[in-house]
Amino acid sequence: MKPANYAAKAILEKYTPSLQGEYSAFAPANIALCKYWGKRDVALNLPVNDSLSVSLKNKGTHTTLKTLPATATDSVILNDLPITPDSPAYQKIVTHIDLFRTVFGPQPFAVKTTNTVPTAAGVASSASGFAALTTALTGIYSLPLTAQELSVLARLGSGSACRSVFNGFVRWYQGSAVDGSDSYAALLPQQWSTLRIGLLTLTHQQKNISSREGMLRTTETSHLYRQWSVQAAEDILQLEQAISQQDFELLGRTAEHNAMSMHATMLSAWPPLCYWISDSIAVLHQVWSLRKEGLDIYVTMDAGPNIKLLFEQQDEKKIRRFFPSAEICCLF
Ligand code: PMV
């Protein structure tokens, strides 16, 4: 049995399933303010550092599961298009469902999954996708899982999915257990009604190096990576302080510094890894000069060229004027 199946079994075998005919679930996408970058265990998606994110509320993934007769094979519809068993997305979804079937026995499903998250804007749909799929599986088998168990199971599909089982500010605790049982995300109690994220799509092109591959290359070859977990630990403390005091300057500064530092570890990998395009750099300079002129605006970036703007409600009009194509998200 694979390590992920062992880890899932330890949770699922505590419960007696009662299979429903159909179940639908939604999970939000999330944007990390302190990034998850680097795995200490690749098979179980166990991170090298704690991370902290904010969810995009109603932008994410809707997933419906229906049970099929025992002789059927799984069918998957992704964004209204059927996908075939030879596609990587189909295989990832089926592998995740197998975590449950290994424990509860064979049962084919029809999966329909639709993203409302703008995938082209570089917002990972895998996080909301695996969180929604895990929630739907838990529902269709009627399992009264704890939030912690749900988060651990989602993590086995995609690391950052463990944060997408919640709305709001979420911290993913890296944990130290080899089986990953203490590596889960939890909701922070604070809300911040005036906080906004603007999604700026600079290119619709798919990246050619996945974050999985990027993390591996960075952890194996970047000398700067040694410093990463030290900085991430400090950044988490600063972010938690910023959130509890609603100190936007501290939040923005820490999130931007964290994202730039993550990209610095990528640039110092070998062969070098750069997800930015020239437009990303142009926007960064625009943001920095607007900030110099007094506008409270910060950025964060993930493993891609697109930019997420961080600002507060009072500056929304100005942000719309300077970045007319930004998709603005209310978070609370
Ligand atoms: O969970 P993954 O494999 O999609 O990795 C996410 C990595 C980043 O988006 C770069 C950072 C993060 O914490 O979301």
What is the element layout, followed by pairings?
Blueprint: H1 3-12, E1 22-34, E2 39-41, E3 46-47, E4 51-67, E5 75-78, E6 81-83, H2 88-104, E7 109-115, H3 125-140, H4 147-157, E8 169-172, E9 185-187, E10 195-200, H5 211-221, H6 225-245, H7 248-267, H8 278-292, E11 298-300, E12 307-312, H9 316-322, E13 327-330
Parallel strand pairs: 5-7
Antiparallel strand pairs: 1-4, 2-3, 4-7, 4-8, 5-6, 8-9, 10-12, 10-13, 11-12
Helix pairs in contact: 1-2, 1-4, 2-3, 3-4, 6-7
Residues 32, 35-37, 51, 124, 126-127, 158-160, 211-212, 302-303 line the site of (3R)-3-hydroxy-3-methyl-5-(phosphonooxy)pentanoic acid.
Characterization of this structure:
The chain has 332 residues and is of the alpha+beta class. It is 39% helix and 23% strand. The protein is built from nine helices and 13 strands. The protein has helices at residues 3-12, 88-104, 125-140, 147-157, 211-221, 225-245, 248-267, 278-292, 316-322, and strands at 22-34, 39-41, 46-47, 51-67, 75-78, 81-83, 109-115, 169-172, 185-187, 195-200, 298-300, 307-312, 327-330. The strands form three sheets. Strands 1, 4, 5, 6, 7, 8 and 9 form a seven-stranded mixed beta sheet that branches. Strand 2 (39-41) and strand 3 (46-47) form a beta hairpin. Helix 6 runs antiparallel to helix 7. The protein is globular and about 65 Å long. The N and C termini lie far apart (41 Å). The mean pLDDT is 96. The site of (3R)-3-hydroxy-3-methyl-5-(phosphonooxy)pentanoic acid has 15 residues, from helix 3 and helix 5.
